[in-house]
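Before going further, learn to read the protein records used in this course. The integers have meaning only within a learned vocabulary of local backbone shapes. To see the layout at work, look at the sequence and tokens printed below.
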Amino acid sequence: VQLQASGGGLVRPGGSLRLSCAASGRPFTNWIMAWFRQAPGKEREFIASITWNWATTAYADSVKGRFTISRDKAENTVDLQMNSLEPEDTAIYYCASRSTAATKYNYWGQGTLVTVSS
């Protein structure tokens, strides 16, 4: 499984950014795709997840109502639309995946840096 994240950059507070993760290497039926982030000096934290089959989503409380995760089966991509960005959202964002039978995410992309600053 290969995951390639893109779309990071510099954005002002209150702005928006859309991250994309290109997934390849196998069919993703019965898999879960997710986004995590790691801010400087902090541990990596879960942001959002989506099931490949039914697009069932879950969000961390810190981003609920501001971020939206989606997946495109035809393109094999998982996107993270981020709105109302705050300086606290500054981090390296990683996409990850696991099968529904796995207990932890065992495939990770390389990360893309998001900086929210005026």
